[in-house]
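Please, why this fold?
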Amino acid sequence: MSSLEISSSTFSQEMKLPSSPPLVEGSALEPFRKDLSEIEEKPKDIIKFTAEKLSVDEVSQLVISPLCGAVSLFVGTTRNNFEGKKVISLEYEAYLPMAENEIRKICSDIRQKWPVKHIAVFHRLGLVPVSEASVIIAVSSVHRASSLQAVSYAIDTLKAKVPIWKKEMYEESSSSWKRNKECFWATDD
């Protein structure tokens, strides 16, 4: 059974889970009880460009915080079609110094707009087969509204400002570099 599956035979209605014993002042467990205001955790911005397959679980784990009740994700994947053509993969290239700098600006903008804790932006480079993730963005916050808005802003701004280029590889052995219509430096032909 995978860790995500829950078997209905695991718990019966009569079964009761043991409750934790109350903490008594001076007990050995007391040092582990902390007021949330005592926990200090520095906000993190994690940015990664890689040719390796992206893991949603890995990226989401990077932003989890005991201070937060929400982790919001955007996962962009390679679809198998575009304008009637069968897509077999995408190929990404980036100008890394500028791309990393632009994503850092996006993280900074997010922090000015919403009260978020951690931000992770992972993007694939090279070939990305159909159904695999090209980009994963994860944001944690105390409440869901902030992280949901931040994730939406992050992907929209990434597509508009970050120098990442995408080439679609088609089944009939052709390919096409795609112009991002959202990108601010793209011109109308």
About this structure: The first strand starts at residue 45 and ends at 50. Residues 103 and 158 are 7 Å apart (CA to CA).
